[in-house]
């Protein structure tokens, strides 16, 4: 059964509510629709202002939120119309790699993965449109800064199931034999480590501190968090679980 065939830009889910964003008749026009009673039921069309491109669909406390390159467009269920908040600051990418919103706050977090060139994390204040860089010079177990846009690709973002004002961010990089990564807790732009798995490698009789990279993240049942690394899944019973279960992935075998 096909329920949405053409023009799908993005999909998002929150608290059992599934939303879809699809292309409108014009390049800067779109339509948000919620899955209800066996079909997608649409809200009024929206138009991205200021020549902006549409980047992502999120679901906030009051309904769908559309992130564009120059504004945040939020649905107001009381006014029954779209509210546009122009961004005060520049997003560092034309496409948002990963995005999320805390369960009980109006912030939008944008994670960028630029590989060996870093990526980092940006935060948009949903009320004012202010764009800020989220960074931390605090050192992790691998002696590297916890979060830097020039060094750390952000590979996953989730609302923190234990704290409605916070989000979780995973980072991971493997480059030229060196690796680093961590799970971070971010609350109104403040960064703290949630999980690091350190180890060391020997180079020219020197011990070089490293950390396990995380290349993706997903939320499980009952507050669980899943992280993926090289051939391994880590299952955290909660974001504060310092000793996650380690599940080896099967080896991929190609019969050529």
Describe the structure.
The relative contact order is 0.09. This protein is globular. A hairpin with a 2-residue loop joins strand 1 and strand 2 (17-23). The chain is mainly β and 256 residues long. It is 0% helix and 55% strand. Strands 1, 2, 3, 4 and 5 form a 5-stranded antiparallel sheet that branches.
Which class best fits the helix and strand makeup? mainly beta
Mean pLDDT: 89
What is the molecular shape? globular
Q: How far is it from the N-terminal to the C-terminal residue, by CA?
A: 35 Å
Q: Provide a count of the helices.
A: 0
Unreliable residue runs: none
Profile the largest sheet. 5 strands, antiparallel
Order of helices and strands: EEEEEEEEEEEEEEEEEEEEEEEEE
The oligomerization state is single chain
How much helix, percentage-wise, in residues? under 10%
* Rg from Cα: 20 Å
The percentage of residues in β strands lies in: over 45%
Tally of strands: 25
Keywords:
55% strand, mainly beta, single chain, 4-stranded antiparallel sheet
Short account of what is shown:
The chain is mainly β. Helices cover 0% and strands 55% of the residues.
Q: Could you outline the blueprint of secondary structure elements for this entry?
A:
Layout: E1 8-14, E2 17-23, E3 29-36, E4 39-42, E5 46-47, E6 54-59, E7 64-68, E8 71-76, E9 81-86, E10 98-100, E11 107-113, E12 119-125, E13 131-134, E14 136-139, E15 145-147, E16 154-159, E17 166-175, E18 178-187, E19 190-195, E20 198-203, E21 206-211, E22 216-219, E23 225-229, E24 232-236, E25 245-248
Antiparallel strand pairs: 1-2, 2-3, 3-4, 3-5, 6-7, 7-8, 8-9, 10-11, 11-12, 12-13, 14-15, 16-17, 17-18, 18-19, 20-21, 22-23, 23-24, 24-25
């Amino acid at each position: 059964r096909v329920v949405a065939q053409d023009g799908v830009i993005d999909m998002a889910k929150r608290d059992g509510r599934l939303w879809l964003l699809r292309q409108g008749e014009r390049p800067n026009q779109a339509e948000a629709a919620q899955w209800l009673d066996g079909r997608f039921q649409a809200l009024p069309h929206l138009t991205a202002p200021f020549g902006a491109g549409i980047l992502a669909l999120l679901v906030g406390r009051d309904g769908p939120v559309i992130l564009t390159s120059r504004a945040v467009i939020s649905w107001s269920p009381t006014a029954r119309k779209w509210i546009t908040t122009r961004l005060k600051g520049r997003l560092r990418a034309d496409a948002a790699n990963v995005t999320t919103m805390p369960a009980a706050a109006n912030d939008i977090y944008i994670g960028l993965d630029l590989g060996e060139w870093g990526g980092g994390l940006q935060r948009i204040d949903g009320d004012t449109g202010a764009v800020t860089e989220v960074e931390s010079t605090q050192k992790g177990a691998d002696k590297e800064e916890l979060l830097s846009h020039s060094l750390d690709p952000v590979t996953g973002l989730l609302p923190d199931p234990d704290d409605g004002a916070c989000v979780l961010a995973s980072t991971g990089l493997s480059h030229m034999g060196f690796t680093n990564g961590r799970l971070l807790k971010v609350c109104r732009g403040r960064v703290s480590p949630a999980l690091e798995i350190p180890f060391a490698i020997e180079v020219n009789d020197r011990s070089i501190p490293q950390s396990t990279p995380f290349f993706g993240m997903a939320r499980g049942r009952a507050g669980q968090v899943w992280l993926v690394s090289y051939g391994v899944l880590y299952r955290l019973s909660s974001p504060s679980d310092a000793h996650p279960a380690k599940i080896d992935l099967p080896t991929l075998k190609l019969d050529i």
